[in-house]
Amino acid sequence: MPDSEDRAGGLVQIERSAGQAPLLAWATPLVNGSPTPTYRAVAIVDPARRQLTASAALEATFRFTKAEMRLAEQMMNGKSPAEAAQALGITIHTVRTYLKRLYHKAGVRTQATLVRRLLQAAQALPS
């Protein structure tokens, strides 16, 4: 039986020189019917380059509520669900409820895929 960590995707922060926000790298295993992933897809994003209008556009595109969008922003900035709960002043149970709603509205099943879809959508917005 494969190790569950082999099948898990996740976030890695890549530190940069002083004064620059870390880059975010999301790794998603590509299983394709195999019991263990052979390849991983990696998306690297510089959160500092996101436009301020991205949040409003994402909110409208995916029909997120204000509360869901606040959580989505936390996730896009590399926060874990527990860190997001603390930053937003809500319980982890509320975060999990919002995450389920975000997954449904974005048409995804995992946290890594959600973040990747949101970051891709934000980058595709016109300048």
From TrEMBL:
Biological process terms in GO annotation: regulation of DNA-templated transcription
Domain HTH luxR-type: 61-118
Lineage top rank: taxon: Bacteria
GO MF annotations in UniProt: DNA binding
InterPro entries noted in UniProt: Sig_transdc_resp-reg_C-effctor, Tscrpt_reg_LuxR_C, WH-like_DNA-bd_sf
Stated name of the protein: Helix-turn-helix transcriptional regulator
